[in-house]
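Customer ticket, subject: "Can you confirm the structure for GtrA family protein?"

Message body: Hello, I'm evaluating your service for our small team and ran a test protein. I'd like someone to confirm that this is what the system normally returns, since I don't have a reference to compare against.
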Amino acid sequence: MRANCPPPTTATTGPMGVQRNGGYPRLVTSSPSAAPNETPRAVPMWRDRARLWAWFSEMMRFGTVGLIAFVVDTGLFNLLRFGPGELLGHKPLTAKVVSVTVAVLVAWLGNRYWTFAAKRSRETAAARSRELMQFALVNVAGMAIGVGCLAVSHYLLGFTSPLADNISANGVGLVLGTIFRYLAYRYWVFTSVTDADAEQADIPAAARAPQADLPR
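Agent reply: Thanks for trying us out. I re-ran your input and got the following:
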């Protein structure tokens, strides 16, 4: 006579996520309330100390180069007009053009090889010429911002005092022009174009196919 034994009613969990109920294996499904693995969120720059310090260092280098270029501009202008020999004593406009040109070259070299050294274009004559031309255009636009602020303040708003002219041109205009120059240098002039990138861009798309796609 066979013993009357009821089947086990308590569920036990075996290895590999298999639940055994009454001796028969049954797959265990995850609860719908269990939260899936979340992808890590991007850390804001102001919380990332390394990125924040890199940005701060870049801003300090940019300001230092700008200060040196300003000293070169004003110093060379006064030297040409009032220095020994007064080479351009009676030609203030010519003296200013020469001083600004030299200051722009100094600023370009300082930003290219120091401020944005890791993002400068490839070392070719064409790339350097393009970069210098863009740099000059940005400086012309930055100067136009300062002149525009002075024009609006002096002629449109009617603030004609020396203090108002200095605030509009050397205050508001200088700040806005500096912000414009920095953003233009960072995102348009110095764009990390290397020789490898240029060569890759010149290669046809079919030739740039990965090795795994090539017939064997």
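A couple of notes from the result: Residues 32 and 38 are 15 Å apart (CA to CA). The chain has five helices and three strands. Feel free to reply with more questions.
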